[in-house]
Amino acid sequence: MSALPPIDPVRCPLCGAVNQCAQEIERATGVKQPPCWCTEVRFEAELLSRVPESARRKACICLACAQAADGA
Q1: How buried is residue 62: exposed, middle or buried, by Cβ count under 10 Å (0-12/13-18/19+)?
Q2: Which pLDDT value is given to residue 7?
Q3: Domains in the chain, number
Q4: Residue 29 lies inside a defined structural domain of this protein
Q5: Is 64 helix (H, G, I), strand (E, B) or coil?
Q6: What's this model's pTM, rounded to 2 decimal places?
Q7: The pLDDT of residue 72 is above 70
Q8: Per-residue pLDDT tens digits for 8-50
Q9: Distance between CA atoms of 4 and 45, rounded to whole angstroms?
Q10: What is the biggest distance separating any 2 CA atoms in the chain, rounded to whole angstroms?
Q11: Residue 47 · residue 69 · CB < 8 Å
């Protein structure tokens, strides 16, 4: 049985791309960030349900995945 890779909070749990989460950038650098782009986006329940259980509330969905789910 192989172990799952650790959750990376700066990578999208759906596609693995960098999620550009301002909160994670601030946490990592200590530099105050403007509000994150995600505060302006609505995440539908269907999109959130695709996030693996192990990554929920641990890694942010990236803008590209959010826009793709919204049909933008």
Answers
A1: buried
A2: 87
A3: 1
A4: yes
A5: helix
A6: 0.78
A7: no
A8: 888 999 999 999 889 888 988 999 999 988 888 889 999 999 9
A9: 25
A10: 42
A11: yes
